[in-house]
Amino acid sequence: MKTHNYSAGPSILPQDTVKNTAAALINFADTGLSLMEVSHRSKEFVAVMNEAREMFKILLDIPDGYQVLFLGGGASTQFFHIPYNLMEKKSAYLNTGAWANKAMKEAKLFGEVVEVASSKDKMYNYIPKNFEVPQDVDYFHITTNNTIYGTEIKEDKDYGVPLVADMSSDIFSRPVDVSKYDLIYGGAQKNLAPAGVTFVIVKEDALGKVSRELPTMVDYRTHIAKDSMFNTPPVVPVYAALMTLKWIKAMGGVGEMQKINEEKAAILYDEIERNKLFRPTVELKEDRSLMNICFIMNDEYKELEKDFFDFATLHGMSGLKGHRSVGGFRASTYNALPKASVIALVDCMKEFEAKH
Ligand SMILES: *Cc1c(COP(=O)(O)O)cnc(C)c1O
Fold this sequence. Notes:
34% helix; binds pyridoxal-5'-phosphate; EC 2.6.1.52; Pser_aminoTfrase; amino-acid biosynthesis; PyrdxlP-dep_Trfase_major; Phosphoserine aminotransferase
């Protein structure tokens, strides 16, 4: 039986990515060497790095003046790399959950951080609206998809100041107007590759403005100058990322991804609303994530939670448990999750409802 993988991260990857990376682990680019054994400076791997960067630019239609970097350390490392590079003394953050909080905590080491709005009052189950961003900040930081709470900012807006976005869990799920952002970053392990590589898309003009001295590895300009090869990059995850990027292209690009993601999300949210046992945790439709679909048992069926979890597990569903801070269930419907898996979950919910 095929296991349906709804894990929030690390998460499902396209079968092509898994198979091609597995093959390269045995014999990379006909070198007779494993991808794990080759020099990152070999011409074969340099070609992988260059193609991955080019594919980012093509798929996201990245304008001139931006650079794409592949770094180690995770999105959490970017929480301090960003203020290090971009914050002279004041920045603004939108508090939409745990990741935003972690990002803010690091920025506070560098100066004043303005929390422009927060959805903490309702367990982060909505996206704050109608807030004002102070116009004297060095940048405004948003988390476009809140992996834990299942909320998502799905449009690229102008806030009048340089915009920075954590897109760890929704990159490549929709077209992005990169020109609206000074910097976009994310860990790859949600929608792109196995854990170990972090992507950064940065506008070159945004750099070099802070007065502090930067450690070499923290300075984005180091990695721009060396094409993400200043030190040893995460070779295997970068290769896997390239395989995913090629798969996205073959599928028709990010516009097509968005269509499929909208369709998958609609099928699941509709069932959550229809089914008497469940309800979504995010009430406002416009705020609902297309990537992490969170739902809980209705109050009168609360005691069935564990039963449903066991029932779903028995039916080949993996990774459905909601984050410990939210409870209930979370079905992550990343690009690589087939529509068939969403339908299998809906069938499972219907069957369970019929039994009760
Ligand atoms: C998972 C996640 C992170 C943390 O990523 P790491 O690579 O583990 O540091 C940050 N932001 C968001 C939105 C995430 O989903």
